[in-house]
Amino acid sequence: FELTNNAAMIQAEARTQNTLSLMLGAIAAISLLVGGIGVMNIMLMTVRERTREIGIRMATGARQRDILRQFLTEAVMLSVVGGLAGIGVALIIGGILILSEVAVAFSLAAILGAFGCALITGVTFGFMPARKAARLDPVKALTSE
Question: Is the pTM of this model over 0.90?
Fold first, then answer.
């Protein structure tokens, strides 16, 4: 004889789903952090390599907000490319899973949410390097090598 308690099985399944959701959220948060650090690193190197250009632009009349806008635009473009690449890879993997007869559901809201998170991450982590570029002293920027 075998006795089963359906309520206990439903509870166990709910706990398992909650645990998996928590792990997936943690993985997503770590991925966003790593991606943000990558954006910041690229933008910091861009600012460092283009210090003379920034100095020339500031010496010829560019305001801090112009420099800030330029580098924030670059961070956004970097994030857009990364977000589109991520969506493309996810769709390809999802297509392969569908061909392998694994049940996969695509959601436009989830895709747009992921893309929005990529943009927000890019702007958030790109702001500090952009602010650093905007606050450069034109004289020091022109004399640096």
Answer: no
